[in-house]
Amino acid sequence: QVQLVESGGGYVQAGGSLRLSCAVSGTIFSTRTMGWYRQAPGKQRELVASITSGGSTNYADSVKGRFTISRSNAKNTLYLQMNSLQPEDTAVYFCNRISINWDWGQGTQVTVSS
Description:
Layout: E1 3-7, E2 10-13, E3 18-25, E4 34-39, E5 46-51, E6 57-59, E7 67-72, E8 77-82, E9 91-97, E10 108-113
Parallel strand pairs: 2-10
Antiparallel strand pairs: 1-3, 3-8, 4-5, 4-9, 5-6, 7-8, 9-10
């Protein structure tokens, strides 16, 4: 069974930075296209960034130029570097496979104050 464990969230002021990590087990991580999602209170979960097994990346317009997704296949870990954080980035952040999601992890809370 696949397990996803997100970490690295916290409370920051606008303009600050955070680096999220997602430890993945129970699958051949290196072959998977992975993504970071977020869900703000009262809103649907949305995809903010994705990365293929080969390292190609895509970003939602709202985070382009501020967030960077990366992966370490040696460590079975997905990362999200978030810079220039804004209050609208406040959400619970999750990682998962793209298109056919596994069971969701607990996520990690990111709170950005103005």
